[in-house]
Amino acid sequence: MSHSLNEIEAMSKRAARGAGLSWGLAEEAAKGTRWLSAFGFPGTDLLADLLEMNDRIPPIDVSPVSLRAPVWHAPARRMSPLIAGASLSDCAMRLLERGTIAMENICVPLLTVPFMAGAALRLKHPVMAEWDGARVATDGRQLCLQGESATLQAPMTAHICFGTPAEMTGRREQVLRAEVSDQSWRRLSTFAQRTFAPATEESRLRGAGAGLSDND
User: Fold this and answer.
1) What angle do CA 24, 181, 52 make, to 5 degrees?
2) Which UniProt key words apply to this protein (predicted)?
3) Partners of 106 in beta bridges
């Protein structure tokens, strides 16, 4: 089914929040899902994969142990691309000074790319990422890709390297709406429903007419 980018962003935000992400990180996850969807990627599937993979895991366990380490890694031996990506964006100047930042065991690596876009805009230089033979580059507004679709959309990579400046070759066109499968939408809806407060006896009595009272 075709969905607007606004619909995708709204559903992604509710799902990310339902999965236990902070409001700030849920907003970033939603913007990133929208950004990837605008370039024709199955952003909702990628986000659903991540939320299912890291469900119920404390954020600290999938966060970088140290941002000053030569290679970033997480205690759980798998790192959230949302947390790692946000940290990368915050460390944009460090990336420019070093030239590269490497990370280990990143879940759904493509979800780091929208954060690369933010870093590129701050630096005014394109930023690239390479993993398993795939190469992605962005200047913040445009996206360039090299590699097989299965590699680009991989659920995990053992090693990813970010660098700047980068060469922009192989540009991908943007779309105004995105095709989202019913299954993908249901997967996100499952997480989004967790944001709804469970009904209590008091809320049920207040919510429909006179409840159990008789006013006649």
Assistant:
1) 45
2) Plasmid
3) 79, 157
Distance CA 100, CA 97 (A): 8
Confidence of residue 213 (pLDDT cuts 50, 70, 90): very low
Eight-class DSSP state of 79? B
Alpha helices in 56-212, H assignment, sequence order: 81-90, 92-98, 113-123, 149-152, 182-192, 201-207
Classify residue 96 as exposed, middle or buried by CB count within 10 Å of its CB (0-12, 13-18, 19+). middle
pLDDT digits (tens, 9 = 90+) for 85-133: 999 999 999 999 999 999 999 999 999 999 999 999 999 999 999 999 9
User: CB pairs under 8 A, 24+ apart, for 135-140?
Assistant: 136/110, 137/166, 137/167, 137/168, 137/169, 138/113, 138/168, 139/168
The structural domains of the chain, with segments of one domain joined by +, span 2-172+179-195
- CA pair distance 153, 150, nearest whole angstrom: 5
